[in-house]
Write a structure and sequence with these properties.
Blueprint (H helix, E strand, L loop, with lengths): L24 H10 L6 H11 L4 E4 L6 H13 L16 E4 L3 H14 L7 E4 L5 H10 L3 E4 L1 H9 L10 E5 L1 H6 L3 H10 L5 E6 L4 H7 L7 E4 L10 E7 L5 H12 L4 E4 L3 H13 L4 E4 L5 H13 L4 E4 L14 E4 L6 H8 L9 E7 L4 H11 L4 E3 L9 H4 L8 H9 L28 H9 L22
Parallel strand pairs: 1-6, 1-7, 2-4, 2-5, 3-4, 5-6, 8-13, 8-14, 9-11, 9-12, 10-11, 12-13
């Protein structure tokens, strides 16, 4: 089980402790089980405000513990309604936490379960790609906290397996993505099902002016909490760029992994097919890799994530489905095989490393065609990323990878074939059917052909053609 790391005391860190917030003994006991004593800056700022019942718009660098920043005070607020009764009526949905991806929903649910383990409060995670039956059973049994993706939640609403009429707190985690990529109609439907009087919390690493405008449409006098410059990247993450030709990028990734001795790294691709191809290439190079993207089933995605966390897989090749919320303890490095189309996704991608104060490396490959994307990223983060040479990497020659077929002697062709290295491709041999090389020969006449020729001769008696009968038997003579 993976939890968002909470900061430990450091030199110059404030002396505030979780017990200073007035959290219940059951919550403090759960935090002690995890070894957490001191809050991170976003937690120190957010927890008191949420406990006051205020709406919050919280912005902080990814990896700083936003999940605990809203889940801990929610658990505290709901303890007043906690019940040990087995009756579902005593456990209505009082808090709804929405996330954009299944993986993030699962991770938030793990955190909520860990922090509420010593309380009577119940929670369930609801997302698509898996059987609805276990989710339905849990919802009908009664839960106070629901963590969900919008689509699957609406499925349960349609099936009448969840009632949101008593929901007191709505949370949008990674709110910018929730409002910015097609979720808005679903969110509006969900919001219309909630009571008018409720507490609204929005947390994310990035907030654009457009997103803030949308958020203000349903937040009521929100308290804005920004513990770091909006859209900033962590100072403890070293960012570098390597310029590599497009056809050499897969070999460059394999080279980086081998040279640095990386045993746990996430590589981001912009496309699903690109992620699958890179994963297969790394496997051929002897690197344990797996791809995770939208075409994978939820069971396959969760299995790959678990194997990655346990060390069975060294490289997780992912699309942006994994850019948000994934919490891998002490992940040393992330690699951008492709620069993201959306500059804000760069912040989330590299936020997978350097979490909770640890150091990390963010490596990006780029080509000439990425100039616009790179400019957008550097404008967003207000930082020029270092351009370096990829030492020790000899890109395969394009002629070796895709040789042209040229005429010449057999000796010359043999010499070309023998020059291919490990990563090259053999010349394609065209298959030629020997039948097309034979001279023309008239086809032998069949019996029917001879009969037709005889009938065409002068004076020949024309024979009546035989007609086959279908279903009705032979015709009468």
């Amino acid at each position: 089980m993976s939890h968002t790391p909470l900061a430990t005391p450091q030199t110059g860190a404030p002396a505030v402790r979780f017990e200073d917030f007035g959290l219940s003994a059951d919550i403090l006991r759960a935090l002690a089980d995890q070894g957490y004593v001191h809050p991170t800056p976003i937690q120190a700022e957010a927890i008191p405000v949420v406990l006051q019942g205020r709406d919050v718009m919280g912005a902080a660098q990814t990896g700083t513990g936003k999940t605990a920043g809203f889940s801990l005070p929610i658990i505290q607020l709901l303890l007043a309604h906690a019940s040990t009764s087995a009756s579902p009526a005593r456990h209505p949905v009082r808090a709804l936490i929405l996330t954009p991806t299944r993986e993030l929903a699962d991770q938030v649910a793990d955190n909520v379960k860990a922090y509420s383990r010593h309380t009577p409060l119940r929670s369930v995670v609801v997302f698509g790609g898996v059987d609805m039956a276990p989710q339905t059973a849990a919802l009908r049994a009664g839960v106070e906290i629901v963590i969900a993706t919008p689509g699957r939640l609406l499925d349960h609403v349609q099936q009448k397996t969840v009632n949101l009429s008593q929901t007191q707190i709505l949370v949008m985690d990674e709110a910018d993505r929730m409002l910015d990529m097609g979720f808005l109609p679903d969110l509006q439907r969900i919001i219309n099902l909630l009571p008018k009087e409720r507490q609204n919390l929005m947390f994310s690493a990035t907030f654009s002016p457009e997103i803030k405008k949308l958020a203000n449409s349903f937040l009521k006098n929100p308290v804005t909490i920004e513990v770091a410059r909006s859209n900033a990247t962590a100072d403890n993450v070293t960012q570098v760029l390597y310029k590599v030709e497009e056809e050499a990028k897969r070999d460059a990734v394999a080279h980086i992994i081998r040279e640095r001795g990386l045993k746990q790294v996430i590589v981001f691709s912009n496309t699903k097919i690109g992620a699958s191809r890179l994963s297969r290439h790394l496997e051929k190079e002897g690197v344990k890799a797996a791809a995770i993207h939208g075409d994978k089933t939820q069971a396959e995605r969760m299995a790959a994530l678990e194997a990655f966390k346990q060390g069975g897989i060294e490289v997780l090749v992912a699309t942006d489905v994994a850019a948000r919320g994934l919490d891998i303890a002490e992940l040393p490095c992330v690699i951008n095989f492709d620069l993201p189309y959306n500059a804000e996704d760069y912040v989330h991608r590299i936020g997978r490393t350097g979490r909770a104060g640890a150091s990390g490396d963010a490596i990006s490959l780029f080509t000439d065609k990425d100039a616009r994307q790179l400019a957008d990223i550097e404008k967003l983060i207000k930082h020029t990323i270092s351009r370096l040479q990829l030492s020790g990497f000899v890109p395969p020659r394009s002629a070796d990878r895709r040789p042209r077929h040229e005429g010449g002697s057999e000796e010359r062709q043999g010499a070309v074939r023998s020059s291919y290295g490990r990563s090259g491709y053999a010349p394609r041999k065209e298959k030629v059917d020997p039948w097309f090389l034979k001279p023309y020969e008239p086809a032998p006449q069949s019996a029917s052909d001879e009969a037709r020729e005889d009938a065409s001769q002068p004076g020949a008696t024309k024979q009546k053609a035989k007609v086959a009968a279908l279903l009705g038997g032979m015709p009468k003579r």
